[in-house]
């Protein structure tokens, strides 16, 4: 009898779970592996919860989850590689970006997996999107008539804020500004100018081009500027422990650290190597996009010389190419499970380019960093971390055998960096809700309510000058000017009257004096 009741409970529970499962679509288009890793971690977690998940990405994972399906976007992976070169200036990168992005957009819409999706008869309950200057992708959920969740690997930026009318205030650092917290007039002016410039570039350069390309494949959808208003929720890969605190509207949710909690077993050779590092070990990695082959030979030699000097401390070095002159205390690997290595208790420091993903992982495990920014948001990330106190910063162009070694020596020899990183780790871990569970809850919330209209603020319907009260400020300025003008007229009138009275009195006195002299 007990077995019968238990079996009934199990069956009912399974039926309930099945009725709660949803069909989730994930489109992580950006041709950078690090962004794919973030999206895959979230989508796999949703699949493990019992949802049927389909992920479209330029990359694929070796995953054994029955409800997780992958479709590869061919011909897109690696298209940003030529931009991500430390020897290319920011101006050259910007110039190269536009034609590469346009070609990537063409490749995206021509992709067989995207064409299948546009014509699919499958029903999806929600789509989670991650992209970069390809907001035309929002036409897909519009076409399929499903809610949209936007995933930001950078945290909140001026371009992401506009989707949900999140305050875009000039005291919050922006990924494009690399001068730290803009708490001066010049800093805030620069930030506001950059925000307006980026919005203008998107509105008048990328969106019109995107609209033109989009019309070839989905001619009956609204413009990109209208599609942007359909975003129901934004998940941002950030947390106040790793960025400057800033305001968030109800449908912009911080989930920083969501992927840094699931530690996998290290490969045997790496585990044995790190276990034997009794004097500690360092992880050196410039991420998934930056190629060691693009690093100047003299700077690479300087780095290897600096790493040699810290022996017997060991080093795990990520490089896609074979290197000459490798010190005996350095092991080189073409691929590394970065999160799992940072979780190892013998890791003492992390030499990184400063991507937000790597910084988040380092903070989560309380590992101080030597930051060498190379591209995009990395300098801003490292400056914020340096100002907080858990990163030593070294500019790429300043790398010499002496500067690299001294920066590393400062990081390893000054315990304050480790202390601050441990404090930040505590802040990141000590959240009311586990960030991964929080992300899953919000995805399911949007599915349950068939969108996020109840979360959207009225700012979505306002023009930028209304949202930031420019019209109100101009009105007050006009009122002030009118009052000043009226005050000027009033003062002028009073002065004229006073002058007239004084003149009249003086005239009367003059007449009296003349009369007195005349009578004499």
TrEMBL record:
The keyword Glycosyltransferase applies. Keywords: Glycosyltransferase, Membrane, Signal, Transferase, Transmembrane, Transmembrane helix. It is found in: Membrane. It catalyses: glucuronate acceptor + UDP-alpha-D-glucuronate = acceptor beta-D-glucuronoside + UDP + H(+). One of its GO terms (molecular function) is glucuronosyltransferase activity. Pfam families: UDPGT. SUPFAM superfamilies: UDP-Glycosyltransferase/glycogen phosphorylase (SSF53756). Its EC number is 2.4.1.17. Belongs to the UDP-glycosyltransferase family. This is UDP-glucuronosyltransferase. It comes from Cryptolaemus montrouzieri. The lineage of its organism: Eukaryota, Metazoa, Ecdysozoa, Arthropoda, Hexapoda.
């Amino acid at each position: 009898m007990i077995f019968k009741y238990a079996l009934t409970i199990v069956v009912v529970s399974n039926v309930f779970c099945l009725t709660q499962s949803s069909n989730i679509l994930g489109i992580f288009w950006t041709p950078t592996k690090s962004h794919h890793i973030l999206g895959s971690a979230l989508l796999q977690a949703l699949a493990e919860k019992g949802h049927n998940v389909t992920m479209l990405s330029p990359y694929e994972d070796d995953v054994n989850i029955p409800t997780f399906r992958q479709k590869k976007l061919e011909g897109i992976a690696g298209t940003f590689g030529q931009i991500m070169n430390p020897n290319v200036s920011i101006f050259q990168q910007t110039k190269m970006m536009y034609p590469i992005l346009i070609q990537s957009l063409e490749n995206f819409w021509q992709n067989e997996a995207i064409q299948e999706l546009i014509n699919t008869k499958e029903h999806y309950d929600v789509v989670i999107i991650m992209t970069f200057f390809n907001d035309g992708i929002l036409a897909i959920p519009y076409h399929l008539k499903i809610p949209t969740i936007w995933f930001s690997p950078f945290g909140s930026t001026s371009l992401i804020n506009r989707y949900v009318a999140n305050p875009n205030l000039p005291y919050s650092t922006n990924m494009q500004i690399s001068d730290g917290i803009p708490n001066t007039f010049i800093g805030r002016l620069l930030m506001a100018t950059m925000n307006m410039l980026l919005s203008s570039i998107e509105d008048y350069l990328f969106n019109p081009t995107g609209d033109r390309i989009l019309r070839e494949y989905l001619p009956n959808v609204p413009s990109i500027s209208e599609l942007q208003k359909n975003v129901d929720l934004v998940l941002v890969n950030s947390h106040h422990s790793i960025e400057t605190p800033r305001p968030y509207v109800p449908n912009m949710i911080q989930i920083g650290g969501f992927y840094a909690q699931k530690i996998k077993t290290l490969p045997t050779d790496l585990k044995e190597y790190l276990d034997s590092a009794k004097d500690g070990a360092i992880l050196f990695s410039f991420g998934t996009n930056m190629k060691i082959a693009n690093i100047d030979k003299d700077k690479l030699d300087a780095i290897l010389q600096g790493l040699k000097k810290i022996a017997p401390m060991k080093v795990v070095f990520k490089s896609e190419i074979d290197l000459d002159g490798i010190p005996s205390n350095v092991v080189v690997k073409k691929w590394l499970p970065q999160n799992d290595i940072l979780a190892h208790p013998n890791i003492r420091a992390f030499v990184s380019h400063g991507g937000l993903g790597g910084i988040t992982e380092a903070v989560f495990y309380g590992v101080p960093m030597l930051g060498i920014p190379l591209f995009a948001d990395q300098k801003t990330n490292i400056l914020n971390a340096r100002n907080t106190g858990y990163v030593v910063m070294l500019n790429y162009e300043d790398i010499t055998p002496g500067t690299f070694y001294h920066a590393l020596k400062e990081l390893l020899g000054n315990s304050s960096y480790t202390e601050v990183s441990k404090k930040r780790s505590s802040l990141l871990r000590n959240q009311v809700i586990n960030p991964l569970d929080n992300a899953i809850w919000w995805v399911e919330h949007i599915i349950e309510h068939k969108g996020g209209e109840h979360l959207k603020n009225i700012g979505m319907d306002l023009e930028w000058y209304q949202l930031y009260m420019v019209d109100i400020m101009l009105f007050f300025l006009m009122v002030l000017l009118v009052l000043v003008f009226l005050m000027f007229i009033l003062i002028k009138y009073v002065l004229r009257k006073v002058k007239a009275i004084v003149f009249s009195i003086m005239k009367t006195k003059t007449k009296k004096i003349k009369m007195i002299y005349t009578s004499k």
